[in-house]
C-alpha cells in the first residue's frame, strides 16, 4: 500500500484522497465530494477529478519503479468529465496502457458510489533518475 509515502500537508491530504489498493495490475483511490472538492455550483470540480487522476497515476508509477534511484513526475494529463456529482465519494481506478523505462501511460476511470462513470482521464508519467547528493 502507499504506507511508505507521507501525504501530510499535501494536496492529497487537503482533498481527502485515500489510496485503498495498489497492485501490479491497478491502483484505486477515493476522494470525498464535499466543500473541499466542489466548484461554486455545488458539484465536483473538474480540477479535483484531475488531481485525483494524477495522484493515482503518480502513486501507481512510484510503486512500479526503482524507488532508490528513480522518481516520478507528471508529464501530461487530459480528462473528459462525463457526469456531475454533488456529494458522497468518487473512486478512481488506474491501469497502465504503457509501462516503459522512462514513461508510463495510465488510464484512470473515476466513478461515483453507484459505479456510474464520472470522468475518464489519461495521464503520462515521466520516470526520472534521482540526482545524487
Describe this structure in words.
The protein has 133 residues and is α+β, with helices and mostly antiparallel strands. The chain has one domain (2-129): Roll (Thiol Ester Dehydrase, Chain A), CATH 3.10.129.10. The chain has two helices and six strands; from the N terminus they run αββαββββ. It has a six-stranded antiparallel sheet with strand order 1-2-4-5-6-3, covered by helices on one side. The protein is globular and about 45 Å long. 30% of the residues are buried. The mean pLDDT is 95.
- CATH superfamily placement: Hotdog Thioesterase
CATH fold name? Thiol Ester Dehydrase, Chain A
Q: How many domains in all?
A: 1
**Multimeric state:** single chain
Helix count from the secondary structure assignment: 2
Mean pLDDT: 95
Task: Please specify the SSE layout and strand pairing.
Blueprint: H1 11-14, E1 18-22, E2 27-33, H2 46-62, E3 70-81, E4 88-99, E5 103-111, E6 117-129
Antiparallel strand pairs: 1-2, 2-4, 3-6, 4-5, 5-6
GO molecular function, one term: 1,4-dihydroxy-2-naphthoyl-CoA thioesterase activity
Pfam families: 4HBT
Keywords: Hydrolase
Amino acid at each position: 500500500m502507499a504506507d511508505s509515502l507521507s501525504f501530510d500537508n499535501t494536496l492529497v491530504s487537503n482533498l481527502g484522497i485515500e489510496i485503498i489498493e495498489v497492485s501490479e495490475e491497478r491502483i484505486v483511490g477515493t476522494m470525498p465530494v464535499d466543500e473541499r472538492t466542489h466548484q461554486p455550483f455545488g458539484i465536483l470540480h473538474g480540477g479535483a477529478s484531475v488531481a485525483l487522476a494524477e495522484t493515482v497515476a503518480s502513486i501507481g508509477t512510484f510503486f512500479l519503479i526503482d524507488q532508490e534511484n528513480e522518481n516520478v513526475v507528471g508529464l501530461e494529463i487530459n480528462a473528459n468529465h462525463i457526469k456531475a456529482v454533488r456529494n458522497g465519494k468518487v473512486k478512481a481506478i488506474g491501469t497502465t496502457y504503457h509501462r516503459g523505462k522512462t514513461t508510463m501511460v495510465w488510464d484512470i476511470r473515476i466513478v461515483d458510489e453507484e459505479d456510474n462513470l464520472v470522468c475518464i482521464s489519461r495521464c503520462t508519467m515521466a520516470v526520472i533518475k534521482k540526482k545524487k547528493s
